[in-house]
Amino acid sequence: MHGSTVVLVAFLTSVLTATGTVFLIEKTNLMRKVEAPVAEAIVPDLRGFTEGDARNNVQASRLTLLASREASAEAKPGTVIRQSIPAGQRVPQQHPISVVISEEVPKVPELKSLALAEATKRLEERGYKIATGAPVVDPAVPEGAVVSQTPAPDAPLEKGKSVTVQLSSGSGEAAVPKVIGLTMANAKTELTKLGFEPNVRWVSLAETPTYVVLNQKPAANEKAKTGSKVEVVVNR
User: 218 preceded by cis ω (within 30°)?
Assistant: First the structure.
């Protein structure tokens, strides 16, 4: 190829390359100029609002509301407890905001006089667990049925918690509880609850706590008939 031709081809190639580069740069800058800025919204404070008011506020702010529910004894049912994004923060419009709506805490059902299996079923239907305490002598309640429960019926209690029941041991013999070391008042309560009759025998001892049970008869855990007397020795 002639030398002048080679020079001409090289010149034309460099011109085309430069032109193409300038075109790409201008096209890129043009595209950047065309891109619109992202529209933002300010997150409102939704805590304490009812679900309806929270939705209206979020809609007015051009955001999206996602709601879940949680039992709470501290907040009014149907109101917002907390939100996923703090109030005042800027986010893109239509950005989702998650809130937790308060629900009323369920209440413990009445279990007295129910058999253990029926009491367990009733609690599990409400989402609770069952625990059993020491048997209680109660001639009025059939053996194996619930005499008392904690918490009491209709008390608010979160799902997943346990309800402790005491079952009747019937009207026969029962183990005498340990009352040594208890105050006289507490000892009487424990004995009476199990169907025993407290019989206080007073003593006077120096340097010994007063109104505290020092001894008992029958001894703790011994079997005795319901209604029988349990002697408690108390210092005064």
Answer: yes
The residue ranges of DSSP E strands in the chain, in sequence order, are 40-42, 64-71, 80-83, 90-92, 96-103, 129-132, 146-150, 162-167, 173-175, 197-203, 213-217, 223-225, 229-235
Question: Does the predicted TM-score (pTM) go above 0.85?
Answer: no
Place of tokens 């997943």: 160
- What's the DSSP call for residue 131? E
Contact 185, 199 (CB under 8 A): no
Amino acid at 22: V
Instruction: Tell me which residue has tokens 């043009």.
Output: 30
Angle at 177 between CA 172 and CA 183, to 5 degrees: 135
d(CA 141, CA 209): 38
Q: Using one digit for the tens of pLDDT, what is the confidence trace for 46-102?
A: 999 999 999 999 999 999 999 999 988 889 999 999 999 999 999 999 999 999 999
C-alpha count within 13 angstroms, C-beta hemisphere, residue 54? 26
Give the model's pLDDT for residue 7. Answer: 46
- What pLDDT shows up at residue 29? 54
Tokens matching residue 57: 């506020």
* Domains defined for the chain, CATH in brackets: 40-103 (3.30.10.20), 116-167 (3.30.10.20), 173-235 (3.30.10.20)
Q: Which helix (H) or strand (E) holds 166?
A: strand 162-167
